[in-house]
Design a protein that fits this description.
The chain is mainly α. The chain contains 19 helices and 2 strands. It folds into 2 domains: 197 residues, no CATH class; 193 residues, no CATH class.
Length: 398
C-alpha cells in the first residue's frame, strides 16, 4: 500500500509544463510563473484557478483526465465538420494520426489544459456555425478567446464571413468574462487587456530557445546562428520580417475567405486556414500550440480524399504529409534514421522546419479554397449550364 500510494503521488505531480507551475505556484528559475495576482493566460484560467484548482477540488492528474475527454470531443467535432458520412477506416487512421502527434509533442504529459480547451471550443464553434447555430457558435468562440488571447484573430474573419450574430456573441462573452476576472483581481479592464496581450513580455520577447518555436524565434536563431542574445539591429530585423510575413499571410487568408463558397466543407477548410494564420501571427509559440494544426490538416485530408489525383492534388498531398511529419511527428524519422540512416537532417534542423510547415499548410488550404471552393467558380458553372446560380445562405449544406 505505501508503494502504491507513492506511485499515485508521482502520477499526480509528474506533469511538467507552464500550466502545472502556474497552478501550483512552483517556481522555475528566479521568476515565479503566477502568484494569483493580476491576469494570466486568460479569464478562464483565473476563474478555474480561483474556484477549482487552487482550493484543491481538482488535482493536476484530474485535469489530465479532463483533457482526454476534451480531446475526444474535439476529434469528434472535427470529423463531424469535415465528413458528410461515416468512414470507419479513415476515422481510425485519423485518430491514430491525432494520438501519435500528441504523444510526440507530449501534450498530455505536460497537461497543457488551456490549449486542449481552446481546441475543443474552436472545433465546437465550427460545427455550430455549419449548422446555423450562430449564437451558440459565437459563445463557443468567446470561450476560446477568454481561455487564451490568440483566438481573437478569428473575430475579424467572422466579419468577413458576415456572421454578425456569432461575432456579437463571441465578443460579448469574451468581454464579460474579462470584466468579471478584472473585477475579481482588482485591476482595471484596460490593465487586464494589457496583461493578456503582453503576457510574460511576449510582445517584446527575444528568446529563441527550443521552447520558443514561432516564426520570430526562427528568425532570431537564423540571424544569430543559433547563439541567442540578438543585437538590437538583429532584433529589429527579426521583428520587422515577422510583422511583414504576418501581414501578408493575414491578408491572403482574408482574400481567400472573402471569395470562398459558404458551404460546410469550405468553412471547415477556412477554419483551418484561420487557425494556421493565428500561429503565424503569434509573437511567441510553444510546441503545444501546434495542436491547432490538427483540425486544419484533417479538413485538408478530407477534401483531398474526395478529389481525383492530378499534379495539383499530388502537390497538396505532399504538402500535407510533409507538414504533418515535420511539425513534431518525428517518430517515423527516428525509426528510419535508426534502421537505415535516413532522416538525420530533419532531426538536426527540426526547429527550422516549423515556419515551412505553417506556410505549406496555409498554401495548401488556401489553394484548395481558391481552386475548388470559389463563389465565382460556382457562378461560372451555373452560367455554363444556363441555370441561375443558387442563392447561398450564410452557411449552406452544399
Amino acid at each position: 500500500m505505501p508503494e502504491s500510494k507513492a506511485t499515485c503521488t508521482r502520477w499526480a505531480t509528474a506533469f511538467p509544463g507552464d500550466f502545472k507551475f502556474a497552478v501550483t505556484g512552483e517556481t522555475l528559475g528566479p521568476n515565479e510563473w503566477w502568484a494569483g495576482r493580476g491576469l494570466f493566460y486568460g479569464p478562464i484560467f483565473v476563474l478555474e484557478w480561483k474556484f477549482v484548482l487552487y482550493p484543491g477540488y481538482l488535482s493536476i492528474l484530474d485535469v489530465a483526465h479532463i483533457d482526454l475527454a476534451l480531446f475526444a470531443v474535439s476529434f469528434v467535432c472535427t470529423l463531424a465538420a469535415v465528413f458528410d458520412r461515416i468512414r470507419p477506416r479513415l476515422f481510425v487512421l485519423l485518430l491514430a494520426a491525432w494520438l501519435a502527434n500528441h504523444v510526440t509533442i507530449t501534450l498530455f504529459a505536460a497537461v497543457q489544459h488551456l490549449e486542449v480547451l481552446e481546441l475543443t471550443a474552436l472545433s465546437l464553434t465550427l460545427v455550430l456555425l455549419q449548422r446555423g447555430r450562430l449564437g451558440a457558435a459565437g459563445a463557443s468562440l468567446g470561450l476560446a478567446v477568454a481561455t487564451k488571447t490568440l483566438p481573437v484573430i478569428f473575430l475579424p474573419y467572422l466579419a468577413i464571413l458576415r456572421q454578425w450574430r456569432a461575432l456579437a456573441f463571441a465578443s460579448a462573452l469574451a468581454g464579460a468574462l474579462l470584466l468579471i476576472a478584472c473585477f475579481m483581481q482588482g485591476v482595471t479592464p484596460w490593465d487586464g487587456v494589457v496583461m493578456l496581450l503582453n503576457q510574460g513580455e511576449n510582445l517584446g520577447k527575444t528568446k529563441a530557445t527550443e521552447y520558443e518555436l514561432g516564426l520570430r524565434a526562427f528568425l532570431i536563431r537564423f540571424l544569430t546562428n543559433e547563439q541567442g542574445n540578438p543585437t538590437p539591429q538583429q532584433t529589429q530585423l527579426a521583428f520587422s520580417v515577422h510583422a511583414l510575413v504576418s501581414l501578408l499571410v493575414a491578408l491572403f487568408s482574408a482574400f481567400v475567405v472573402s471569395r470562398m463558397t459558404h458551404s460546410r466543407r469550405s468553412l471547415a477548410l477556412a477554419w483551418g486556414l484561420i487557425g494556421t494564420t493565428m500561429l503565424v501571427l503569434a509573437p511567441v509559440t510553444h510546441i503545444f500550440y501546434y495542436v491547432f494544426l490538427l483540425p486544419a490538416w484533417t479538413a485538408l485530408f478530407a477534401d483531398l480524399v474526395d478529389r481525383r489525383i492530378g499534379w495539383v492534388t499530388a502537390m497538396q498531398w505532399a504538402a500535407l504529409i510533409a507538414g504533418y511529419i515535420l511539425m513534431g511527428f518525428d517518430q517515423p524519422i527516428i525509426l528510419l534514421n535508426r534502421q537505415f540512416g535516413l532522416g538525420q537532417v530533419i532531426l538536426d534542423h527540426w526547429l527550422s522546419f516549423i515556419p515551412l510547415v505553417l506556410l505549406l499548410t496555409v498554401g495548401a488550404l488556401g489553394g484548395n479554397l481558391l481552386l475548388y471552393h470559389q463563389t465565382r467558380q460556382l457562378d461560372r458553372r451555373a452560367t455554363a449550364t444556363h441555370v441561375a446560380a443558387p442563392e447561398l445562405s450564410p452557411i449552406s449544406d452544399a
